[in-house]
Design brief:
There is one protein chain. The protein has helices at residues 5-19, 27-30, 42-52, 61-81. The relative contact order is 0.05. The protein is an all-alpha fold and 96 residues long. It is built from 4 helices and no strands. This is Gamma-tubulin complex component.
């Protein structure tokens, strides 16, 4: 690294904000090597996931629809697993 105070300040900034355990943007947020989805763009990630579900560029409509149903089911299950979802929240005001 060049012997320049500005370079040292920038390196410290990167460590403090992106690399250290207590950093503002921890590596598990932005680092791809630990993720199944290798992009930070949700649309690109979804398109990549969708593309891997088919063996041809123009799949049969029934195969396409079945895969969309699988995606919907998977998304619904993930949503229901979230702590604040009404179906998983055990509230005192909820009557059984």
């Amino acid at each position: 690294m060049p012997d320049d105070e500005r370079c040292q300040q920038f390196a410290d900034y990167l460590l403090h904000n992106y690399v250290q355990t207590a950093s503002r943007f921890q590596p598990d947020i932005w680092a791809c090597f630990t993720k199944d989805n290798r992009t930070t763009n949700a649309c690109e990630s979804f398109h990549s996931h969708l593309s891997r579900m088919f063996y041809s560029p123009s799949p049969n409509i029934f195969v396409f629809m079945e895969n969309l149903r699988l995606i919907e089911t998977e998304a619904s299950l993930k949503i229901k697993k979230t702590p604040n979802h009404p179906d998983t929240c055990i509230c005192a005001s909820k009557k059984n």
